[in-house]
């Protein structure tokens, strides 16, 4: 997979590394495995599964993803030192196709951090790439902040990395500073000037600070790069990374002017986009290209008229191309278990019998309350049911009073088997209910994000709620869905608290503390 033909581009997904390291986007072990398997199934060529030296949790996730990988190359990140590289190799070596990715910041600002002069850094690059290549024959090297590195020094370091055995040279625009013409010129310059450049694959890794990540990545490909590094939904720090769905669909829809193919099954895009949004707690903006709720909605009168006559009037790609089925009414409250199973299978969801029984119960409850149950309602139900976090804290009863006369909540919860009660007030019904949770289960975690979105249209729609809590720098996300927004909110909050308890146990057992970021010089 590392040597693409001239007419194809390698898709390198870093949702689980650059995406997951963005503050707040932390995923659990199981969630990482699930996302990795979806990436593999959709045809991603290289999955950057994590940063193994960062924590026990990262190491275990990369190892397990490596063991389970089917078609994708599994890559781990390491800074430019032997300890990081060895740890990375320990994790990725289980993969059928492992890759070590090692990097160092080469721009003047980044060279100052480990306090290396140009010669010392050049030597470090030679030694670390050589060390990595002695372990694995698929090596990616990145000069971090390449777009702000002096051109002659960039050429010199790239040449050293190639001579030391790197097989892929990645050119990161770490701070999202470049623009399309410059992005292309940089790749062209490296291909022209660096001896051995034609023997390796050049990659482009763009951040979206100026909103140009997709354009910069495609410009780099036009200039000769043959690997695009990207994340699902453009997840990533600050304004995020290049969005996988954008570059892949641009290459597909405009193949006439950008004749490079990918192996991605684009019909799997919507499903993975929804999953990444749910597990990271980073909702997709409504008008986001390709995967936003409005991306295929043609609501204005003029557009609708045109669409009825010929869909192509305003549609450059079909919703089905990205896996967006027309919203369909699923079933009513009289539908049986077999019908539910077959509908879920149609949506690509396979459940074991016990999971199906749980989802069926929830479906019946929902169908009693809600007139119409749609595909998206079912997807939300399945997601609520498939979380394996133990419920040490659970909501039993909740009564909320709200309106102009004031807001209060009366709550019964089960905490480690004991029934606990609270009656609280607050600034709005959700605040009152959250105060009740805090009274019953005092904790120091800070609420960093509270986000509500409607699953479908209508006032009886389910609300999906994401809650992000931060306890001593450890961030967890909880989510839930219910037609009652306050109930969904409390359940999402409680879900996050249960995850905090799991984290506390792991930390007490000496595991899963992320102390290193790739930004720490090493
Ligand atoms: O943006 C960046 O420079 C990175 C590197 C670690 C490749 O993510
Ligand atoms: Zn990055």
UniProtKB/TrEMBL annotation:
Mn(2+) binds at residues 18, 205, 207, 241. The keyword Manganese applies. It comes from the Bacteria. One of its GO terms (biological process) is L-leucine biosynthetic process. Residues 394-522 are annotated as: Regulatory domain. Keywords: Acyltransferase, Amino-acid biosynthesis, Branched-chain amino acid biosynthesis, Cytoplasm, Leucine biosynthesis, Manganese, Metal-binding, Transferase. It is an enzyme of class 2 (transferase). It holds the Pfam family LeuA_dimer. Pathway: Amino-acid biosynthesis; L-leucine biosynthesis; L-leucine from 3-methyl-2-oxobutanoate: step 1/4. GO terms for cellular component: cytosol. It catalyses: 3-methyl-2-oxobutanoate + acetyl-CoA + H2O = (2S)-2-isopropylmalate + CoA + H(+). Homodimer. PANTHER family: 2-ISOPROPYLMALATE SYNTHASE 1, CHLOROPLASTIC-RELATED, HOMOCITRATE SYNTHASE-RELATED. Catalyzes the condensation of the acetyl group of acetyl-CoA with 3-methyl-2-oxobutanoate (2-ketoisovalerate) to form 3-carboxy-3-hydroxy-4-methylpentanoate (2-isopropylmalate). This is 2-isopropylmalate synthase. The lineage of its organism: Bacteria, Pseudomonadati, Pseudomonadota, Alphaproteobacteria, Rhodobacterales. The gene is leuA.
């Amino acid at each position: 997979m590392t040597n693409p033909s001239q007419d194809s581009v390698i898709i390198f997904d870093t949702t689980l590394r650059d995406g997951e390291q963005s503050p707040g986007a932390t995923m659990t072990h199981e969630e990482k495995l699930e996302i990795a398997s979806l990436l593999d199934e959709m045809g991603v060529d290289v999955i950057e599964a994590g940063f193994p030296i960062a924590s026990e949790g990262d190491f275990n996730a990369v190892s397990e993803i490596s063991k389970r990988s089917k078609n994708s190359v599994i890559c781990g990140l390491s800074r430019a030192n032997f300890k990081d590289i060895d740890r990375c190799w320990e994790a990725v070596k289980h993969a059928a196709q492992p890759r070590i990715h090692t990097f160092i910041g080469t721009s003047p600002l980044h060279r100052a951090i480990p306090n290396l002069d140009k010669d010392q850094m050049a030597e470090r690059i030679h030694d670390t790439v050589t060390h990595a290549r002695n372990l694995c024959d698929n090596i990616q090297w990145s000069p971090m902040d390449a777009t702000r590195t002096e051109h002659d020094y960039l050429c010199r370091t790239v040449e050293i990395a190639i001579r030391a055995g790197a097989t892929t040279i990645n050119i990161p625009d770490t701070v999202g500073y470049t623009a399309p013409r410059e992005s292309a010129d940089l790749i062209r310059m490296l291909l022209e000037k660096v001896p051995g450049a034609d023997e390796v694959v050049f990659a482009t890794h763009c951040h979206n600070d100026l909103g140009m990540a997709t354009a910069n990545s495609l410009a780099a490909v036009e200039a000769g790069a043959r690997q695009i590094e990207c994340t699902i939904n453009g997840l990533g720090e600050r304004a995020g990374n290049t969005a996988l769905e954008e570059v892949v669909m641009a290459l597909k829809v405009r193949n006439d002017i950008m004749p490079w193919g990918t192996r991605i099954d684009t019909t799997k895009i919507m499903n993975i986009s929804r999953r990444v949004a749910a597990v990271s707690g980073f909702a997709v903006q409504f008008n986001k290209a390709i995967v936003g709720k409005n991306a295929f909605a043609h609501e204005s009168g003029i557009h609708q008229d045109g669409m009825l006559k010929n869909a192509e009037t305003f549609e450059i790609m079909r919703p089905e191309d990205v896996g967006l089925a027309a919203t369909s009414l699923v079933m009513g409250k009289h539908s049986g278990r077999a019908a539910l199973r077959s509908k879920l299978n149609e949506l690509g969801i396979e459940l074991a019998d016990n999971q199906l029984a749980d989802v069926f119960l929830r479906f019946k409850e929902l169908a009693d309350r809600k007139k119409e149950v749609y595909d998206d309602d079912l997807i939300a139900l399945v997601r609520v049911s498939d979380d394996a976090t133990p419920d040490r804290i659970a909501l039993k009863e909740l009564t909320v009073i709200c309106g102009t006369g004031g807001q209060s909540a009366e709550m019964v919860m089960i905490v480690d088997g004991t029934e606990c009660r609270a009656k609280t007030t607050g600034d709005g019904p959700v605040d009152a209910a959250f105060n009740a949770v805090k009274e019953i289960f005092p904790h120091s975690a800070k609420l960093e994000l509270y986000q509500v979105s409607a699953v479908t249209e209508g006032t009886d729609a389910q609300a999906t709620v994401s809650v992000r809590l931060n306890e001593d720098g450890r961030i967890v996300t909880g989510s839930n869905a219910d037609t009652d927004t306050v109930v969904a909110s409390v359940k999402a909050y409680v879900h996050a608290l249960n995850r905090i308890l799991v984290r506390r146990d792991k930390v007490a057992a000496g595991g899963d503390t992320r102390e290193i970021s790739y930004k720490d010089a090493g």
